[in-house]
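Q: Can I borrow your eye for a moment on a structure tokenisation matter? Would you mind producing a protein record, from residues through to fold? Write it directly below this note and I will take it from there.
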Amino acid sequence: MLDRYVDVSDIDPRELVEKLNTHSVEATLDYFGNPDVEKVVVGKILKTEQHPSLKKLLVCEVDIGDQRVVVCTNDKTVREGDKVFLVLPGGRIGDFHIAERDFKGITSQGMFLGLEELVGVPSEGVFKFHDPQVEPGTDVKTLLGLGEPIIELDITPNRGDLLSVKGLAREVSALYGRPLKEEKIDITQPFGEEIEIEVLDEGCNRYRGAVIRNVKVGESPLWLQVALWKFGEAVINNVVDITNYLLFTEGNPMHAFDLDKIEGRVRVKPAEGGEKFLALNGKEYTLERGDLVIADDKKVLALAGIIGGSESAVSEGTKNILLETAHFDPFRVRKTAKRLDIRTESSYRFERNVDIENIPHAQEMAIRLIQRLAGGELTQVRDIYPKPYTPRVVNLSYNKYRRYTGSDIEPSKGAEILNRLGIPTEVRLEGDIKRAILEVVSQQLGCEGYRIPSGGEVDAYLLCGEGEIPVLVREGGGEPPKGGKLIIYRFTPEGLEIEVKP
């Protein structure tokens, strides 16, 4: 997945993890699923019938590409047309070897599998799917990418920009001097007025809502399910899965509402206090005055940035949706989530940093994926953005850098690294002082420019050379790397403040 954003095809994952640990963030290497399997293939069930003498068993005729086999199973939920994973005679799952087995006169030529045996995902009975792009007989180890490397990051509170594949790719781009693969797409400009959307609380810095009608909610294609398994996320349905997929890849949380369950206007507002809210996790919460919520004219639809409500959830019967992509105040999200003891992938990101400027791009990707996988017509886009983000211009002196760190770096090298991190930078000579003139971009500061106009922090440098070169991180950035120093830059009303932690 990382390769979609930056070329890592020739980089050993172990080397990458080591480099991340040395220069950037704590990382560990793991591997996806169980690669210790043989002769596991995709099968398509052509016919099922009750075993003539064993009432607990079904006898299934299964297409495995180049032949048909008979498999006996005690899972009576399998149906004609289902696709399954099965291990054939002579195959194995770890140390468990499969052979033909006689069930009172009927020979079973394999065994159906659940997800737990292959990818460690709990499942009830046989895993079934219906992706038309996956052919019977396909090798499952290759199909699922069993054994592929997975990099797990231990994200510190100040590195919310790494909470996505895109953010990690930006880091890898700087570490290895490789260009990012920019995905240029045309952004749909706001249009339509069928649904009224209001932002009535300054805790919402941006709210972009898109209406898509006549969608067909159903099962996600297998590639999308596999992607979510790799992220450790549950599979729900194609629309919800798309929003979760883009949360992990782009870093922008989204939520899809069943539009037909919304009564009247959509409003981002503070709770009045005392409202009862039934969340998607099945729990009911009592709200306090000031909790930031999404509501219609009669009820609370969602806790902003935290979790949606069951009353407006997207289900198989949903025909029309409102797709929300927004930016909520980290402090407000953190306060409500902590009080109610709710921890979600969405709140985890909003509490740290979400790129407010990436909202249109991420939502456009979601719209296109929804239309590709679920159909539907885009009938409205509303973008409420009262105070657009303005990049700050910051002056950093290389002479001051040398004095504080005891190290030297060629100004052009420093600018190159910062540019690869997505921070536009140029070098200027002012008398005998060389300065890096850089813009603080949205993925670095997120909402801080709104909440603390004269404050906030920025990754001033991330020097990705040899181990003895200091790594400069934001305030609260943990311990300095071996052989380096922790250099903290803060923007204060008086100007740029520098602190060195050896």
About this structure: The longest helix spans residues 359-374.
